[in-house]
Write a structure and sequence with these properties.
Elements lengths: L1 H8 L57 H5 L4 E2 L2 H10 L8 E5 L7 H9 L4 E5 L5 H18 L4 E5 L16 E3 L4 E5 L11 E3 L5 H4 L5 E4 L4 E9 L2 E8 L1 E3 L5 E5 L2 E2 L12 H13 L3 E4 L5 H14 L6 E6 L2 H5 L1 H7 L2 E5 H7 L5 H14 L4 E4 L14 H12 L4 E4 L1 H4 L4 H22 L14 H20 L3 E5 L4 H8 L6 E5 L2 H7 L5 E6 L5 H14 L8 E6 L4 E6 L2
Parallel strand pairs: 2-3, 2-18, 3-4, 4-14, 6-7, 14-15, 15-16, 16-17, 17-18, 19-20, 19-22, 20-21
Antiparallel strand pairs: 1-21, 5-11, 6-10, 8-9, 8-12, 9-10, 12-13, 22-23
Helix pairs in contact: 8-10, 13-15, 16-17
The structure holds adenosine-5'-triphosphate, pyruvic acid, potassium ion and magnesium ion (MG).
Pathway: Carbohydrate degradation; glycolysis; pyruvate from D-glyceraldehyde 3-phosphate: step 5/5
GO molecular function, one term: magnesium ion binding
EC number: 2.7.1.40
Length: 574
């Protein structure tokens, strides 16, 4: 029976012998089922081969999976880190939660970016609030080179500045300390460095007119607080009431009688003219995601999406809505539906709503995104203390765990990786905590049954959705080793990811760009592979390539799906 199935699956490769495989497990009969029939002899889930939370780290000079992989374009694109994780841990234990790192002065050199990729970075974020186009171009090209030369699929996310009020640069200083009782001047004059002592530039011309004496001025949502004591034309003099560290371009909000003041600054466009120039730059440099700051409505997302569609016809850029303002919460569902993903940007969010409301808003946003099938990133201050210290606080670890437990698609580092002293250590903490919680789910068999509403907009989509829901359920019930999905658009891969199944999802796509974009989504391990509409051939090819690399073994149980055929099959790897 075993050899029959071998011939059936791999007629052109007689050299592979199931009988001699030490990994052989009883096959499902019949071997390939369009309609699944249960079999008692079917399958024993493999043990967690390596429960260690920290996967193998390859040295960055290691040639494994390096140039040779990328060069073999006809084969399969997978990076060395994924390959090592699959081999070491068995594929049930690969990390499901994705990691985004903000690149900044602490991480912008080629070796530093590579170290983050090796440490598990799935998406590199560049924040257009900081740095010049030349600086960002260099970073984006370094990520691209790394992908090309070492087979990684690190996506690039560009984050717009938006037109909220913020401070200027600190005349070249990395930070400045504001002490209790000190008087500082916030000025809308175009001051050049060196700035007069205790003077801060403000980017928004209307600032000096909008504030009133007695208003409270919050830097970074309250990290430092001032009281407005005097207005002198373009200058606003403020006394520090809560001391702290001022960082370049920190966000400013002002409050009157306990409420956030939203005057003319609330009328500023979500995408400023500087943002449009940055977006043109991002399109030209081939970024994969554009994250829009301070989104207020679905309209701006739709506008940006048509702008992108008109300018890049050969390739897609996903638009991520940053949820960080009161208006974005009012229109949450329609914003999420208009976008290709969302970010819970807790930094600015916590400056616009009371801090104690941020955790429940996070939970709501994550839940809505998961239900509507949009990837969701939880961002800001996850490991803030690691900007300065090599270990996180217990509270930070608990916060990271909570985001993983909510099954957010991705966690993001900001200052920790952009300008902190321990970027790689911070990434290691995110990775280990994610792996630990995910392993705990498996040990406790905690499949989560979230109510998933229909998201299909056509009958054909409805079929895909039903197939994915069933496949994910079958995967859990049968304890399969992996779901394989052959996808040209990524749609079925994301529908599978939405179900948060207990096993990893190998997503095969013919496009390098799509492979990168899929890298943001929970549980997806994206591969680039050229494939046809014939699943027989596709499976044979995949099994053979992955077996050659030691990434799967005979007897592994797989459920395979395809976008093109809308098919589902249960197969033992021959
Ligand atoms: N490209 C860069 N050049 C210099 N410093 C940077 C850069 N990117 C980030 N930083 C530093 O890292 C800190 C945290 O980065 P982060 O992206 O969270 O920015 P932010 O200013 O808090 O704004 P946002 O609300 O958009 O996240 C910044 O305040 C800045 O000091
Ligand atoms: C990430 C971001 O923009 C924020 O937290 O405000
Ligand atoms: K930003
Ligand atoms: Mg923000």
């Amino acid at each position: 029976m075993a050899s029959q199935s071998l011939h059936f699956l791999a007629p052109n490769n007689p050299s592979r012998s199931l009988a001699s495989s030490p990994f052989r497990r009883p096959s499902l009969l019949p071997e390939r089922l369009r309609l699944f029939r249960s079999s008692a002899a079917a399958h024993t889930p493999p043990p967690d081969l390596n429960p260690s939370p920290v996967p193998v780290i390859l040295s960055s000079t290691n040639g494994i999976g390096g140039v040779s992989i990328a060069a073999a374009a006809s084969a399969i694109d997978v990076d060395a880190v994924t390959e090592a994780e699959l081999k070491e841990n068995g594929f049930r234990s690969t990390r499901r939660t994705k990691l985004v790192c903000t690149i900044g002065p602490a991480t912008c050199e080629a070796e530093q970016i590579e170290a983050l990729a090796v440490g598990g970075m799935n998406v590199a974020r560049v924040n257009m609030c900081h740095g010049t186009h030349d600086w960002h171009r260099r970073v984006i090209r370094q990520v691209r080179r790394l992908n090309e030369e070492k087979g990684f699929a690190v996506a690039v996310m560009m984050d717009t500045e938006g037109s909220e009020i913020h401070m200027g640069d600190l005349g070249g200083f990395a930070s400045a300390k504001a002490e209790d009782g000190e008087v500082w001047t916030f000025s809308v004059r175009a001051l050049k460095a060196p700035l007069p002592e205790r003077t801060i530039n403000v980017n928004y011309d209307g600032f000096a007119e909008d504030v009133r004496v007695g208003d409270e001025l919050l830097v970074d949502g309250g990290m430092v607080r001032f009281e407005v004591i005097e207005k002198l034309g373009p200058d606003v003099r403020c006394r520090c009431t809560d001391p702290g560290l001022l960082l370049p371009r920190a966000n400013l909000t002002f409050w009157r009688d306990g409420s956030l003041v939203r005057e003319r600054n609330a009328m500023l466009p979500t995408i400023s003219s500087k943002d449009w120039l940055d977006i043109d730059f991002g399109i030209a440099e081939g970024v994969d995601f554009i994250a829009v700051s301070f989104v207020k409505s679905a309209e701006v997302i739709n506008h940006l999406k048509s702008y992108i569609a008109a300018r890049c016809r050969d390739r897609e850029i996903s638009v991520v809505a940053k949820i960080e303002s009161i208006d974005s919460l009012k229109n949450l569902e329609e914003i999420v539906l208009a976008s290709d993903g969302a970010m819970v940007a807790r930094g600015d969010l916590g400056a616009q709503i009371p801090l104690e409301q941020v955790p429940s808003v996070q939970q709501t946003v994550v839940q809505i995104c998961r239900q509507l099938n949009r990837p969701v990133i939880v961002a800001s201050q996850l490991l803030e203390s690691m900007i300065e210290y090599p270990t996180p606080t217990r509270a930070e670890v608990a916060d990271v765990s909570e985001a993983v437990r909510q099954r957010a698609d991705a966690l993001m580092l900001s200052g920790e990786s952009a300008m902190g002293q321990f970027p790689e250590k911070a990434l290691t903490v995110l990775r280990s905590v994610s792996l630990r919680i995910e392993r705990w789910w498996r040990e406790e068999k905690r499949y989560e049954a979230m109510e998933l509403p229909d998201v299909a907009s056509s009958f054909s989509d409805k079929i895909s959705e039903e197939i994915c829901n069933s496949a994910a359920k079958m995967a859990n019930n049968l304890g399969v080793d992996a779901l394989f999905v052959y996808t040209k658009t990524g749609h079925m891969a994301s529908l599978l990811s939405r179900c948060r199944p207990d096993c990893p999802i190998f997503a095969f796509t013919t496009s390098t760009c799509l492979r990168r974009r899929l890298n943001l989504q929970w549980g997806l391990i994206p591969f680039r592979l050229s494939f046809s509409d014939d699943m027989e051939t596709n499976l044979n090819k995949t099994f053979s390539l992955l077996k050659q690399r030691g990434m799967i073994q005979s007897g592994d149980l797989v459920i395979a799906l395809s976008d093109m055929l809308q098919s589902i099959q249960v197969i033992n790897v021959p």
